[in-house]
Amino acid sequence: MANTSTTISTSEDYRAALIDSRDEIDLRELFDVIWQGKWLIIITTFIAAVISVCVALYLPNIYRSEATLAPAAEAQGGGLSALASQFGGLASLAGVNLGGGNKADKSQLALEVLKSRRFIGIFIEKHQILPDLMADKKWDSANNQVVYDPEIYDATSQTWVRNVKPPRQPKPSLQEAYLAFQKLITVTNDAKTSMVTIAVEHKSPYITKQWVDWLVEDINSEMKTRDVEEATKSTEYLNHQIQQTNVADIRSVLFNLIEEQAKTIMFANVRQEYIFKTIDPAVVPELKAKPKRALIVVLGVVLGGIFSVFFILVRHFFKSEK
């Protein structure tokens, strides 16, 4: 009985080992399968290479221009900080913002304004860049002109002719333009140095430089206008409060606050780079930023080869199962 059970156990082990050996991948067999399908691999890889070259050549050049900015120093920050420490509570009750000279907060606010829908919408309308943003097809380097897609925009009559479904109109809305503009602009802020980089990508290298310059100019102007309007309203309010009180100490404080608001207005009007100072201005790029045509071709060839090998192995597997 012992011999019989031993024989049965040995037989079962042999069968299990035989099954496992069949399930194991024979590398030599796989190599033979791949070698037999070498022409399919070669043809598929060649087709993938041709397609990759066509795609790489079809894609237009994209240029990138950027400017490096630093938060502008607060020239009158000392006076405002002193008043904020002495009369901050009274100023808050009076509805006046002394600020305290925190340039980091102001620059961060400016960056949020820069990325806002309202600012970008005003920027697009002010500089009339909608065709360059939404209908550009390529850049004519010989004439330094943007060639527009005739199916979207008729440059001769300056009319939008694109075919879209409602609620969209032939002329892109500011919501569409905002989404498109977001893809072209990059704003980064270095937390350690507080340096800000504004970069724009476009098919025309001259447009990239122009848009960066306009963005820097407009955000400085926007923040300047906001501070001047706030200081003007604060001055009007403080003058009204002076007329309402006869207490000498309070009147003295209010006069000091009015003086600082006047300094804010004067300071804003005499400085062009109000919130950001340009450290490294934008230039017209001579070299394209993308596409990486060589990388596109290499990836196309690699993916074509991998796909063809995978197809051959899967086909062989299904044939073996039958």
Order of helices and strands: HHHEHHHHEEEEHEEHHEH
Tell how many strands the DSSP assignment holds. Answer: 8
Question: β content, as a range?
Answer: 5-15%
Radius of gyration: 34 Å
Domain Polysaccharide chain length determinant N-terminal: 23-126
Protein name: LPS O-antigen length regulator
Subcellular location: Cell membrane
Membrane topology: Multi-pass membrane protein
Short key terms for the protein model shown above:
8 strands; 322 residues; four-stranded antiparallel beta sheet; alpha+beta; 2 domains; 11 helices
In short:
By secondary structure, the chain is of the alpha+beta class. It has eleven helices and eight strands. A hairpin with a 4-residue loop joins strand 2 and strand 3.
Helices, strands, pairings?
Blueprint: H1 2-23, H2 27-36, H3 38-58, E1 63-71, H4 77-93, H5 103-114, H6 117-127, H7 130-134, E2 136-140, E3 145-148, E4 153-154, E5 159-160, H8 174-184, E6 185-189, E7 196-202, H9 205-244, H10 248-270, E8 276-280, H11 293-321
Antiparallel strand pairs: 1-7, 1-8, 2-3, 4-5, 6-7
Helix pairs in contact: 3-11, 4-10, 5-9, 6-8, 9-10
